Amino acid sequence: MILEHAILPVRPGSEPDFEAAFAKARPLVADRPGCRSVSLSRSIESPNLYLLLIEWDSVGAHTDGFRMSREYESWKTLLHHYYDPFPVVEHFTSVVAG
User: Fold this and answer.
1) Which of 16, 23, 63, 91 is least surrounded by Cβ atoms within 10 Å, i.e. has the fewest?
2) Sheet containing strand 35-42, strands side by side
3) d(CA 6, CA 91)
4) Cβ–Cβ contacts within 10 Å for residue 32, how many?
């Protein structure tokens, strides 16, 4: 299992619109082959920051499967204009579990 991690810096004031757009965009990634789970959390200290965590079967399920799909184009249209600056996405693998 691979964990995709991204801190999403949403333009201040657009958080409600971003959350509504994310609700529409979530199935675009959640229904992709290799996607195990999707979660979005909002920072308490910095309310315009969101933590996106997606569990994938592999890095390729994200980079080759989702990012090369029509669904990703719709994802970008729905969400990317809310970010300032654009988020950094990284993939993690577990070294200690339990």
Assistant:
1) 16
2) 35-42, 49-56, 2-9, 89-93
3) 9
4) 19
Global confidence as pTM: 0.95
Whether residue 52 contacts residue 8, with contact meaning beta carbons closer than 8 Å, is answered with: yes
> What are the DSSP calls for 53-82, one per residue?
EEEES-HHIIIIIITTSHHHHHHHHHHGGG
CA dist 19 to 10, 29, 71, Å?
10, 15, 18
Question: What tens digit of pLDDT does each residue of 22-44 get?
Answer: 999 999 999 999 999 999 999 99
b/e map 10-26, b = 16+ CB within 10 Å: beeeebeebeebbeebe
- CB 49 within 8 Å of CB 42: yes
- Check residue 97 and give its pLDDT: 79
